Amino acid sequence: MSNVTLDKSQTIQVRYAEEATTSCCLSCGGAIDYAKPEKGEVLIDLGSGRGLDVLKAARMVETAYGIDFTKEMINASVSNKKKLRLENAHFLEGKIDQIPLPNESADVVISNCTINHAPNKQAVYSEIYRVLKKGGRFVVSDIIVDEKLPDHIINDPNAWAACYGGAIPESDYFEAIYKSGFRELEVIEKSESYQKVEVMVRSITIKAYKK
Ligand SMILES: C[S@@+](CC[C@H](N)C(=O)[O-])C[C@H]1O[C@@H](n2cnc3c(N)ncnc32)[C@H](O)[C@@H]1O
Question: Is ligand 1 within 6 A of the CB of residue 73?
Fold first, then answer.
């Protein structure tokens, strides 16, 4: 038997493939509720998991898209969509730093507990900027850390899959957002520090408009 070492992305996908058909809670905030999706809008959810937020949004907006790179999550979402007969919900397999949708196609982008998994946060926020229409907004719930993590955690794919290995300090996170073109970031919610396996993290929910 050969030993196969999985990289960070593969380890994250293995974790979520296993959780696609469970009911275990995967979120870390209330991005969709703060985003207040409206009739006639186009919404994109980055890291849509089993599709629950997309299916909730589809009842409020014109079109809702979920993007996720774990095939099993997309399959679970499509199966949930069929049960609910929500024709305006669409699930696309893809990476959040290469969103498979055109420029200026969305009024609102949401994401819940996903961007911490991405190695390049600025690339993700640049993609959010690209797909938003002028005047569009994002509301993101995510995980941050108070201090830069030590290399042994940053280099551990299992820590990334467990939603803390890829978490960065607030100042670095906000810098990535500003460098992507957004201004006037609003912090809607920030938790106290709490322990996630071996590190202290916070949940944060933020919002900004594309001016
Ligand atoms: C913690 S779960 C959150 C799911 C959902 N947003 C929720 O709140 O229930 C993270 C999801 O993001 C997906 N994901 C992680 N990194 C991703 C990436 N770089 N590109 C696309 N999807 C990603 C995973 O497959 C997983 O379904």
Answer: yes
Q: How many residues are given for the chain?
A: 211
| pTM of the model as a whole | 0.97
Phi, psi for 13 (deg, rounded to 5): -65, -35
- State how many domains the chain has: 1
107 lines ligand 1 (CB under 6 A): no
Letter string b/e over residues 147-162, b meaning 16 or more CB atoms within 10 A of that residue's CB = eebeeebbebbebbbb
- Which residue's CA is the nearest one to ligand 1's atom 12? 47
Phi/psi at 151 (5° precision): -55, -35
Q: For residue 140, give the CATH number of its domain.
A: 3.40.50.150
Which of 18, 45, 68 to probe ligand 1 with, by most ligand atoms within 8 A of CB? 68
Does the residue 125 lie in any domain?
A: yes
Nearest alpha-carbon partner for 115 in 159, 191, 51, 167: 167
Tens-place pLDDT, residues 88-109: 999 999 999 999 999 999 999 9
Ligand 1 pocket, 44 CB below 6 A?
A: no
The answer to whether 97 and 120 have CB atoms below 8 angstroms apart is yes
Residue 3 is predicted with a pLDDT of 64
* 70 pocket-lining for ligand 1 (C-beta < 6 Å): yes
Is the Cβ atom of 113 under 6 angstroms away from ligand 1?
A: yes
Residue recorded with tokens 């703060």: 34
